[in-house]
Automatic annotation (TrEMBL):
Membrane topology according to the record: Multi-pass membrane protein
Keyword Transmembrane helix: yes
Name this polypeptide is given: APC family permease
TM ranges: 21-39, 45-66, 107-130, 142-162, 169-193, 213-233, 253-276, 296-322, 348-367, 373-393, 414-435, 441-463
Localization per record: Cell membrane
Classification lineage: Bacteria, Bacillati, Actinomycetota, Actinomycetes, Micrococcales
GO cellular component: plasma membrane
Length: 492
């Protein structure tokens, strides 16, 4: 594919290769941090298996996404795929229901990624509160979270104003600062003998576990929470329109991220449970890596760990900021959000979307509970993956897409795999996460999740009205332009 460097104000620029796309998505392994203590609370040491199976699930799903990324190279990841596949060509009615489905998928995906900014800003505030007692005397934990969010969001906005390539450079720097210590914390406990395998093998499942409907629903909910982290490396595909060579760059970036996630997720959770035991993890559900560092490296280790985690959180905020802003840009260019969200600067950065996302997350921080925000966000992410996999199946079967070039093809029969995991997401994991939320933090997060998702309906209806009005003005202007041309020809 020839390199396409569009110069229009509202076009994303083809400026990155697969290594840069991978660097941006390397924040994904850090998504395990909020759930390191959460999963063992329900499934004990089997959390290690859940993470492994969830990353494998990510491989199954991302194989389909990689094919769609090369089939629709101008589409922006999951949001773009679904919108392109479900829309009805040459639709004559007032509202295209297929377009609504695609737009809702993109909105769900956006809601799956965007709250990461608030979740990790709250965690940064919490760590700062514990790291510097003087700050705790001056500010509350909520105030520190709000200040942290404002500073981080503003800083990342400034860096990414100059284009995605600079965002990838920042990703390289933060990956080196945060991922290397994370790998050390994952490997060192095994090397120093602090990992006791009995802590894992003697606690594979909770003692009261039973394969009844109650526990099966919990298991589906745990998988939904896990995939919010372990499958999120599909974000490497969302930059499809910005890769120099999408047909080669997208699959490479996706699978490189997947392999890194598989190794790190299993090692980190194994190290934490192996050192602390399940009971020890449950005693430190928010930050279990800190006592692991203390056990392996002493008191100084906890200070290093907190500083490392803060850099790590900035990296994942960077990943989420870029991914969610591209999702909004994709929706706007497809006519599924107001046109203003598709506006980019000269460097191809969707700056309006980035401003709105930053403000939205400052509001979310006011909830003050990272677990509740994650639970609501997981509802959106589960819906997005399920419907996107159904979009892949439709793209494989619908005659309109049969003759499209597919530079990367999933193995034969992959539409059956995609359908299976689509149904696993919707309805099974969706029902499971709603049930799990009701047990853990009540119904608030569930209502917030469904409220944000339902908010899309009036926004979409307004967008359709705006599109029709814009098209009417354009149609009215064309005859006038034609008449002016005729007058010029006559005078000549």
């Amino acid at each position: 594919m020839s390199e396409d460097r569009s110069t229009g104000d509202d076009n994303l620029k083809r400026s990155i290769n697969w290594k840069q796309g991978m660097a941006i998505a390397l924040g994904v392994p850090l998504l395990i941090l909020p759930s390191l203590g959460y999963l063992p609370m329900y499934v004990s040491a089997a959390a290690i298996l859940i993470w492994g199976f969830s990353v494998i699930q990510g491989f199954m799903q991302s194989t389909a996404y990689a094919e769609m990324a090369t089939t629709f190279p101008k589409a922006s990841g999951l949001p773009g795929f679904a919108q392109h596949v479900f829309r009805t060509e040459n639709y004559k009615g007032k509202y295209d229901k297929g377009k609504l489905i695609g737009g809702f998928t993109a909105w769900s995906y956006w809601f799956g990624w965007s709250p990461i900014l608030a979740i990790f800003a709250i965690m940064v505030g919490g760590y700062l509160h514990g790291l510097f007692p003087a700050l705790g005397e001056t500010f509350t934990e909520y105030q520190l979270s709000l200040i942290s969010g404002l500073v981080i969001f503003t800083g990342l906005f400034v860096v990414n104003w100059f284009g995605l390539k600079d965002g990838a450079i920042l990703g390289y720097i933060l990956a080196a600062v945060s991922l290397i210590p994370l790998v050390i914390l994952a490997v060192a406990p095994f090397a120093t003998g602090h990992v006791q395998l009995a802590n894992i093998t003697d606690s594979w499942w909770p003692t009261d576990w039973a394969w009844d409907m109650h526990h099966i629903l919990i298991l589906f909910g745990v998988f939904a929470i896990a995939q919010w982290s372990a499958c999120a490396w599909e974000t490497a595909a969302i930059y499809g329109p910005e890769y120099k060579n999408p047909s080669k760059d997208v699959p490479k970036a996706l699978f490189a991220c997947g392999i890194i996630c598989f190794v790190l997720y299993i090692l980190v959770q194994s190290a934490v449970i192996g050192v602390l035991g399940v009971d020890g993890v449950m005693a430190e559900p928010v930050s279990p890596l800190i006592p692991v560092a203390q056990a392996v490296f002493g008191e100084a280790g906890s200070m290093i760990t907190i500083i490392m985690l803060i850099f790590a959180m900035i990296l994942i905020i960077q990943t989420a900021y870029l991914g969610s802003s591209r999702a909004m840009h994709s929706m706007a260019t497809e006519g599924n959000l107001p046109r203003i969200f598709g506006k980019t600067n000269r460097q191809g950065t969707p700056f309006v979307a980035m401003v709105v996302i930053g403000l939205f997350n400052l509001v979310l921080i006011s909830m003050g509970n990272a677990a509740a925000i994650l639970a609501a966000s997981a509802i959106g992410y589960t819906c997005a993956n399920g419907i996107s996999l159904f979009a892949y199946v439709r793209a494989k079967k619908h005659p309109a897409f049969a003759d499209l070039e597919r530079p990367f093809k999933a193995p034969k029969g992959w539409k059956n795999v995609a359908m299976t995991f689509g149904l696993f997401n919707v309805p099974l994991c969706l029902v499971g996460v709603v049930y799990l939320n009701s047990l853990e933090i009540g119904w608030t997060s569930t209502w917030v999740g469904f409220f944000v998702l339902s908010l899309y309906i009036p926004i979409w209806l307004y967008s359709q009205h705006e599109t029709r009005r814009f098209n009417s003005k354009a149609a009215a202007a064309r005859p006038a332009d034609h008449d002016d041309a005729d007058l010029v020809d006559a005078s000549a």
